[in-house]
Amino acid sequence: MASKQNILPVAGILSGALVWGLIWYPYRAIQEAGMSAPLATLVSYTLAILCGVFMLPRGWWKFPQNGWWLVGLALTAGWANFGYVLAMLNGEVMRVLLLFYLAPVWTILFSYWLLNEKLNRYGYLVISLSLGGAFIMLWEPHLGVPLPKNISEWLGLSAGMGFALSNVFSLRAKHLSLEVKSFGVWFGTTILTTPLIYWQGKVFDQLFAIHAQTWVLLTLLGIVLCATSYAIQYSISRLPANRAIILFLFELVFAALASYILADEVMQPRDWLGAVLIISASIFSGRIYSTPKN
Questions:
Q1: In the structure, what pLDDT confidence band is assigned to residue 2 with cuts at 50, 70 and 90?
Q2: For residues 63-88, average pLDDT
Q3: What whole-number distance in Å separates Cα of residue 107 and Cα of residue 293?
Q4: Residue range 106-139, pLDDT digits in tens
Q5: Does the predicted TM-score (pTM) go above 0.90?
Q6: DSSP string for the chain
């Protein structure tokens, strides 16, 4: 019976991994059709909110009743989503994604500072493996400094930090329902896209120039984002952390296949070595605490 009860949570995380491993491709198609990435993100997440109003009405009405922890969750998760999309649009898919998956390191640091959680030997192993993998991927002999080499990689790295911090906020704000957390993610993403859209200008020119098939794609994206966000929140609350992390790693598999087939991207040997270390760190990250969380 237990295995049957886990079918939905496992399916929820795997569907989320599939969506986030492939979502860069429709956003690239929309960008090529003439709509900027920030505007496409704003439109798709606004549609996700509208979808959520009908699917999760309780979350909509309870949203204003929650305090600063929800604000923190919304802004950090919003940047994780928005930064991820921006990074994947113009960067090498797998390098950006692997930098995003340094998130366990930032989760350890944020949890120590904000939640006073102590590490065991697995925590230090996660830090060592993650930073070692990043060093191998980013080290350039002629530069000597292992740092991201372009804006897309910096965005992927910072989006992973936002994802880690949002997880800490979510853990701290246990009183928030799944519906409220989902709305927080959507609202946070739309809020953070607005300043960049205003700075870029020509919003209405872009909207009126988009063909009907692009609007259909945006609508489908909104529905998928709505369903995926709730499915992931539902699944995380019902699976052990170490099992959820391993399932999330399927996102790397889906993204690797998609980037090779759809974008003709090929990883270098040192990228593969760095990937092995970062993936290993993610697997161990479910065991990083020596005592139960308060």
A1: very low
A2: 83
A3: 14
A4: 877 887 777 776 666 777 777 787 788 888 877 7
A5: no
A6: -HHHHTHHHHHHHHHHHHHHHHTHHHHHHHHHTT--HHHHHHHHHHHHHHHHHHH-HHHHHHGGG--HHHHHHHHHHHHHHHHHHHHHHHS-HHHHHHHHTTHHHHHHHHHHHHH-PPB-HHHHHHHHHHHHHHHHHH--TTT------SHHHHHHHHHHHHHHHHHHHHHH-TTS-HHHHHHHHHHHHHHHHHHHHHHH--HHHHHHH--HHHHHHHHHHHHHHHHHHHHHHHHHTTS-HHHHHHHHTHHHHHHHHHHHHHH-----HHHHHHHHHHHHHHHHGGG-BSS---
Mean pLDDT of the chain, nearest integer = 80
Token look-up 């959680």 returns 117
